[in-house]
Amino acid sequence: MPVSDLHVVLGATGGIGRALVRELAAQGRRVRAVSRRLGTDLPPGVEAVAADVSTADGSRAACAGAAVVHHCAQPAYHRWTQDFPALNEAALIGAAAAGAKLVLADNLYAYAPPTGPLTEDTPQQPTSRKGAVRLRLADQLLDAHRRGTLRVAIGRASDYYGPGTIASTAGDTVFGAVLAGKAVRWPGRVDVPHALHHLPDIARGLITLADHGAADGRAWILPAAPALTPREFVDRIGAAAGRPVRISATPRAMMRLVGLFDRSAGELPDIWYQYDRPWTVDDGQFQRTFGPQPPTGWDEGIAATVDWYRGHHPASTRS
């Protein structure tokens, strides 16, 4: 482990990266926030660095002096196949050059369509293009770990919600719609359970993986509250916001049409198995290995997210 105690967050202006920077700062860690274009709302004491970490040189410079590199950077959703491999390689090079441990913020796309709750032992046999990309990225990093190039740990989460979430499936199209008095249009079925992670829980989980050698060399499912159905989730948002709510299911064929105008939405049919059946997780291995890390309760997490939308995303409060 390097003498340094510096945590470098690549992709610090994305949903997970921003939450991670805030949690690290709240814990009194030394933090460098790295992104192409940094905002002005970083916590006091955080070092801000603007860099292109899709290149090896940019990544080496951004990661210099790090003890831990948190890889939260990603290309535009519709550009994963083209751009993610080079970005992943650059993050690996930068972390290795610093002698740092690399912690990847990953999702659940690498797993096969489930027949029960997803666990770390669920077969990694993706049936989607995006899942194949994510599995290839994770395998590249874990292979580097096995070869002794650097230490690697991977934390996996489902769709997320929480303060600061805009682009997630459970972001503006859900919270913003409810607060604006509009109907929520959810992809797929609305009455089957769907796992959602709370952003601060993801951040705390990734920090736990950074701190523990037992996390190294494998992927972990991060703590999450027991899954609700999308309808139950939206009903709770309505209750917290004091607004009537409506939710409707968007069929796959309709999502393809939406994709003609919204490239990110057009990518969802590729992972439709996540929305047309129960999509739940079991975080038991994480809890047993690292000790209890209770996830945020639904009412607490939803209330905090509604408050954030009211204060930071005022367009969503206009009907």
Automatic annotation (TrEMBL):
- UniProt cross-references to InterPro entries, sorted A to Z: Epimerase_deHydtase, NAD(P)-bd_dom_sf, NAD(P)-dependent_oxidoreduct
Where are its TM segments located?
none
Q: Which PANTHER family match?
A: NAD(P)-BINDING DOMAIN-CONTAINING PROTEIN-RELATED, PROTEIN YEEZ
Q: Per the UniProt entry, what species is this protein from, by scientific name? A: Pseudonocardia humida
What range(s) does the NAD-dependent epimerase/dehydratase domain occupy? 8-215
| Protein name as catalogued | NAD-dependent epimerase/dehydratase family protein
The record's Pfam families line, in alphabetical order, gives: Epimerase (PF01370)
